[in-house]
From TrEMBL:
<feature type="transmembrane region" description="Helical">
    <location>
        <begin position="127"/>
        <end position="148"/>
    </location>
</feature>
<feature type="transmembrane region" description="Helical">
    <location>
        <begin position="813"/>
        <end position="832"/>
    </location>
</feature>
<feature type="transmembrane region" description="Helical">
    <location>
        <begin position="339"/>
        <end position="358"/>
    </location>
</feature>
<feature type="transmembrane region" description="Helical">
    <location>
        <begin position="204"/>
        <end position="234"/>
    </location>
</feature>
<feature type="transmembrane region" description="Helical">
    <location>
        <begin position="246"/>
        <end position="270"/>
    </location>
</feature>
<feature type="transmembrane region" description="Helical">
    <location>
        <begin position="154"/>
        <end position="175"/>
    </location>
</feature>
<keyword id="KW-1133">Transmembrane helix</keyword>
<keyword id="KW-0812">Transmembrane</keyword>
<feature type="transmembrane region" description="Helical">
    <location>
        <begin position="378"/>
        <end position="397"/>
    </location>
</feature>
<protein>
    <submittedName>
        <fullName>Bacterial membrane protein YfhO</fullName>
    </submittedName>
</protein>
<feature type="transmembrane region" description="Helical">
    <location>
        <begin position="404"/>
        <end position="421"/>
    </location>
</feature>
<dbReference type="InterPro" id="IPR018580">
    <property type="entry name" value="Uncharacterised_YfhO"/>
</dbReference>
<keyword id="KW-0472">Membrane</keyword>
<feature type="transmembrane region" description="Helical">
    <location>
        <begin position="313"/>
        <end position="332"/>
    </location>
</feature>
């Protein structure tokens, strides 16, 4: 047998760990996109009333992942749609009254994960690929970092698994947090290479990794990465035993890389500062989810408190924990060798912050991280524990492997397998896969709204749709979507809904909190549709609405029909749709001592649609009847149906007779056995109702609304005042009618829209969006400075018939954009001139 050539063997040695990381990532995810599985928290979504009628069932793992559904993925979906249409997604009109999209780093659009998501026409496959890409980036970067520090590939593999699937990365895997944290190992890897070699060719790579970390979408996590980098530099400079000139020279190269990355990211940092600068963030006072010493046990027993939670999961596996004490011993024995010193500092210096062992009042004074939940620093602790485990294993391998290299290798492979199995059980408990058909499934109500809503018109969705912002994933605009609001916006939004905000950035409410009594206020916000769920689901008051009655007393006297004999079926031919969830069956006589059970079955042809629970017998001084409740609301379209009365049980003394009435309607017939009767059962249909909505809206108290029920458990309220995209008001003060019929939308895109005001009065054209830097208003082609209606929306002054334009052209980004371009050019120049720089540095070092 020919032995493989050396180059092939070297290629195999280098590629085997990378292939192993790919395999581990696939195993960890556990989904098969080829059979319609993906990675996303939609199992949580289909549990809510807004999607209950899809009939999709999925076990729930992602109970704490609503932010992904209402904040991250709606923006991703819209950006994906625009890119696939060949347009740059500069602006998202569907959230918060409009918000920057491409340039705002908190949307994570400029990330490999989003690129993978947008690449595939099949959205479920895109979501899976996005998750896989993130795992490969973090695991390969971690492997390269640890391998560069030890040279031991197997130990580096174990460390890469430990950090990549550590508690922080597992908890926040579907968030922007991990789109950011995956680049931390790469930043550290290129910094280590600079420290080891002093080669300038690593500087632009450090800059690129740092820039990608900034663009990841969660700035605080990027700061965590820079903290790890600072501790790396301090440990290396103090304990590497290099001359101060080497420390200064290579430290300068590292600083140059970070400064270069700040130049590259300047445009995006400027946009982020602009966005945050409009807000009052004084309420943000970071804390820690860890408060007691016993919380340390969560590192050993992650499930000790039951199902895992996001803020209290820091598990890195038992192996790194077991090796921590040997790592401390080796650190002292090796006289603080810089790699060990760095690893220990990542744990011991960060733990007092993450666990709030330092008073929070002091921690809150730390710039950039004091206003965030400080327990998220467990990310850096996990990195430190992973690094120390690699160092200990590589040291042990060097000693044992000299005598028994085969056995040492087998032990490392076994430990790697244990690490994978150990962390997979935790990873799968928080990042389980779901069916592809759960990905924002279509519903009758949402489809109806999407087919009729016009540009700039908004919707409000109540708690039946989880949290505000979720339906924006369907291209519906929501003022209340998850995100930061200015104080003026909050005042405006709290006027339309009582106490809408459950956190400073998220809102969830019942429709009873919506100010339906003032449709004009909703019209100011451009709210055309309100999507309401049945409030009884949320503990609201139960009321009944009488839907239909099969009885016409004018046609003759009633009689009785025994239900304990032949099969009794009421035949129904519907000419219009009807909805009910409860039926009452009138009784002629009943033996109260009987032990018979009665249920109703609803058939369409030979197909059983549904059946009631056992009916409850109701007796009063006037009548007796059975009350029969269906498990969910029934919505029947036109067609033929059969309602069967099923009597169960046996009792010789029981008697049960239903009331039947004459009927000459061809739409109602009674079948007893095989015979058709000229009488019909006495049936009354009811629908349980959302108490507030039906009382205030359906009762006809306000003709400004139209109410539709397109599916069980959901009510759609349409504001008839909103029949256009912008409106005219005569005055900015007081109460003025929102006259939508005075405006005609001539053209529309995300970043440019044209209206025609057809009235002849002087006043203001209000565009129901948030006024944001970069937008400008034109009247008859001339730029005008808009006022702010209710402190939020642009109000353009007009005098008679006018053409009004609203254009997004952020020319004030020109300077930061130029800095970013310059940074990219400097990075390219540095890449080409790295060898020349190295020679100059060498000559200068020798000269001095």
């Amino acid at each position: 047998m020919n032995r493989p050539s050396w180059p092939l063997s070297l290629l195999a040695q280098r590629s085997a760990p990378l292939l192993a990381l790919v395999l581990i990532a696939v195993v960890m995810l556990g989904a098969n996109p080829l059979v319609g599985e993906t990675i996303a928290p939609f199992d949580f979504l289909v549990q809510f009333p807004g999607w209950k009628n899809t009939g999709i069932e999925s076990p729930v793992k992602h109970r704490k992942h609503s932010d992904v559904l209402d904040a991250k993925l709606p923006s991703w979906r819209y950006a994906r749609e625009k890119l696939r249409q060949g347009e740059l997604p500069l602006w998202n009109p569907h959230v918060l009254g409009g918000n920057p999209l491409l340039l705002l780093v908190t949307r994570s659009i400029l990330t490999p994960a989003f690129a993978a998501y947008a690449l595939f026409s099949n959205e479920a496959v895109g979501l899976y690929t996005s998750a896989l890409v993130n795992l490969l980036i973090v695991s390969i970067g971690s492997y390269l970092l640890f391998a560069s520090l030890t040279g031991n590939r197997l130990a580096a593999l174990l460390g890469a698994v430990a950090f990549s699937y550590s508690g922080f990365n597992t908890s926040w895997f579907l968030w922007h947090h991990v789109n950011t944290s995956i680049w931390i190992p790469w930043v550290l890897f290129f910094a280590v290479r600079i420290a080891q070699t002093g080669d300038a060719k690593h500087v632009p790579w450090l800059a690129i990794a740092s820039t990608l970390m900034i663009l990841g979408g969660f700035p605080t996590v990027a700061v965590y990465g820079y903290i790890a980098l600072l501790l790396l530099f301090l440990s290396w400079s103090l304990f590497s035993r290099n001359t101060y000139r080497v420390v200064i020279l290579r430290g300068a190269l590292g600083v140059a890389g970070i400064l270069l990355s700040l130049m590259m990211a300047m445009l995006f940092l400027y946009c982020l500062d602009e966005s945050l600068g409009r807000l009052d963030l004084s309420y943000r006072r970071g804390g820690s989810a860890f408060r007691k010493a016993q919380d340390l046990l969560l590192y050993v027993q992650p499930f000790r408190e039951g199902p895992l939670t996001l803020g209290r999961t820091g598990y890195v596996g038992l192996i790194p924990l077991i090796l921590f004490l040997p790592a401390l011993w080796l650190t002292l024995r090796r006289r603080l060798e810089w790699r060990y010193a760095w690893g220990v500092s990542l744990v011991l210096l960060i733990a007092p912050l993450a666990f709030a062992w330092i008073p929070m009042d002091y921690i809150r004074q730390i710039p950039l991280i004091g206003t965030s939940m400080i327990n998220r620093l467990i990310l850096i602790i996990g990195l430190g524990l992973s690094l120390l485990s690699v160092l200990v294993l590589s040291t042990a391998y060097q000693r044992i492997g000299k005598k028994a290299p085969g056995w040492a290798t087998m032990v490392l492979l076994l430990l790697l397998a244990v690490q994978v199995v150990d962390q997979r059980r935790v990873f799968q408990s928080l990042v389980g896969h779901v069916k592809a058909d759960t990905v924002y499934p279509a519903t009758a109500t949402i489809d109806y709204v999407r087919g009729r809503i016009e540009p700039l018109q908004n919707v409000i969705a109540d708690r039946g749709y989880i949290v505000s912002g979720v339906v924006s994933a369907y291209g519906l605009s929501e003022w209340y979507a998850h995100g930061f609001h200015t104080p003026a916006e909050k005042r405006l939004l709290e006027g339309a809904i009582t106490r809408p905000f459950i956190t400073p950035t998220a809102s969830a409410f019942l429709c009873s909190q919506v100010n339906f009594a003032n449709p004009l206020f909703l019209a100011y916000l451009g709210v055309r549709y309100v999507l309401c769920s049945d409030e009884t689901i949320h503990g609201g008051k139960v009321e009944q609405k009488h839907v239909f009655d099969t009885i016409d007393l004018s046609q003759g006297e009633s009689s009785g029909l025994s239900l304990t004999g032949e099969r009794v079926v009421q035949l129904v031919e519907l000419q219009q749709h009807v909805s009910f969830d409860e039926l009452e069956l009138r009784l002629e006589s009943v033996n109260v001592d009987n032990r018979l059970g009665v249920r109703l079955k609803l058939w369409m042809g030979t197909e059983l649609l549904t059946e009631t629970a056992p009916c409850s017998l109701q007796l009063d001084s006037v009548e007796a009847y059975f009350r029969c409740r269906f498990p969910s609301q029934i919505l029947l379209d036109k067609g033929s149906y059969e309602l069967e009365v099923l009597v169960e049980g046996e009792s010789a003394s029981a008697s049960l007779s239903a009331v039947v009435y004459p009927s000459n309607s061809p739409l109602l017939q009674l079948q007893v056995g095989n015979r058709l009767s000229e009488r019909v059962l006495g049936l009354r249909g009811y629908r349980r109702t959302n108490a507030y909505i039906y009382r205030k809206v359906l009762s006809g108290d306000n003709d400004s609304y139209i109410v539709r029920e397109l599916e069980p458990g959901v009510v759609l309220v349409e504001n008839r005042l909103v029949n256009g995209s912008a409106y005219f008001i005569s005055s900015l003060s007081g109460i003025s009618d929102a006259q939508y019929d005075q405006l005609r939308l001539k053209s529309y895109s995300d970043t440019s829209m044209q209206f025609e005001y057809i009235g002849d009065e002087s006043g203001w054209v209000v565009i129901p969006v948030r006024m944001y830097p970069g937008w400008s208003c034109l009247v008859n082609g001339k730029k005008v400075e808009p006022a702010l209606f209710n402190g939020v929306m642009p109000a353009v002054p007009v005098r008679g018939n006018s053409r009004v334009g609203f254009i997004y052209s952020p020319t004030h980004y020109a300077v930061p954009a130029a800095v970013s371009i310059l940074g990219v050019l400097l990075g390219l120049l540095l890449s080409f001139k790295a060898q020349s720089i190295n020679r100059w540095l060498t000559d200068h070092y020798k000269t001095n």
